[in-house]
Write a structure and sequence with these properties.
The protein is mostly beta strands. Helices cover 11% and strands 42% of the residues.
Length: 92
């Protein structure tokens, strides 16, 4: 699916419709020092293995792509969850 690089949509901060630049949201690096990660590492340690079954193969062939919209006027960033698709292309 092709998505335009700029779209005109509502901005909560400006309280009006403004031009937004569109980028694809990407997940950041997980912190190994986070409490959940430390707990999981402790549970995996020694004999016994995983706390829950390790996912061998995924059932779904597509992902819901999230769009990151940045307001051209105020710079506020909002996320918009897209539809399920195999490939998302941002075109000019």
């Amino acid at each position: 699916m092709k998505v335009p690089k700029e779209i005109n949509t509502y901005c909560k901060k400006c309280n009006k419709y403004t031009t937004h630049s569109v980028t694809l949201y990407k997940k950041g690096k997980e912190r190994s020092t986070a409490l959940g990660a430390r707990r999981h590492a402790e549970d995996k340690k020694g004999y016994g293995g995983q706390k829950y079954p390790e996912l061998k193969r995924t059932a779904k062939t597509t992902k819901k792509q999230t769009l990151k919209l940045k307001c051209k006027e105020c710079g506020r960033i909002t996320h918009r969850e897209g539809i399920r698709l195999r490939k998302l292309e941002i075109v000019a």
